[in-house]
Amino acid sequence: MFMGRLNDIKGPDLLLQAFCNLKNKLKDYHLVFAGPDGGMLAKLKAKVEEFKLNDRVRFLGYLGGVDKSQAYYAAELLAIPSRQEAMSIVVLEAGITGTPVLLTDQCGFDEIAHIGGGQVVPASVNGLQKGLVEILSNPTQLKLMGENLEKYIYEHFTWDAIIDKYMKLYYKILSEK
Questions:
Q1: Which of 93, 120, 126, 127 has its Cα between 20 and 30 A from that of 137?
Q2: Which CATH architecture has domain 2-175?
Q3: Is 48 exposed, middle or buried (0-12, 13-18, 19+ CB in 10 A)?
Q4: What is the mean pLDDT of the chain?
Q5: Residue 161 confidence (pLDDT)
Q6: pLDDT-based confidence at 86, cuts 50/70/90?
Q7: Residues 21, 15: Cα–Cα separation, whole Å
């Protein structure tokens, strides 16, 4: 699944091309794009037509609230093919639902690979292809990645974890006076 605006910086065209190139290797998989059109929807749909993948690629449009949450829970994998990000928020959203991620090295969240919550690849069609084949080839490992990412998000990005960090910082500052 892809979650985000369908525009150049988010890289949905890279992901779609990678999926199209792998259509025979990933026969059992579907690709879902969830997010508003940012100027690329017509181009992406034309690519789907060109590769005759209408039965395996879906465009859901904007999802919010419960629908967005359910989409994360339903996905086996979230792919984040961004060409440039400061820090990908959808990683946190996917992680809290236990959905592993495949993201590019331009997302500002490379620690995902270090904690075993997903895989980081170059921001290219080739990088995404290699990552998709590798990450989807082992469903047991994929489930474990989702569990690792969920644990990491709970330990580092929930309000309780953030408040705990601030409290430790405050106590440290106060003890230095």
A1: 93
A2: 3-Layer(aba) Sandwich (3.40)
A3: buried
A4: 95
A5: 83
A6: confident
A7: 10
Whole-number Å distance between alpha carbons of 136 and 120: 14
- The DSSP 8-state label assigned to residue 61 in this structure reads E
- 107: Cβ contacts below 8 Å, ≥ 6 apart: 80, 82, 85, 87, 88, 91, 120
pLDDT of 88 reads 84
Domain locations along the chain: 2-175
- What would you report as the CA-atom Rg of the chain, rounded to the nearest whole angstrom? 18
Structure tokens at 119: 């895989």
Q: Tell me which residue has tokens 């995902």.
A: 112
Helix (H) or strand (E) holding 103: strand 101-104
- For residue 46, the surrounding DSSP H or E stretch is helix 41-50
Rounded CA gap, 101 and 95, in Å?
8
Distance of CA 142 to the CA centre of its chain: 13
Q: pLDDT > 90: what percent of the chain? A: 85
**pTM of the predicted model, to two decimals?**
0.90
For position 45, what pLDDT does the model report?
98
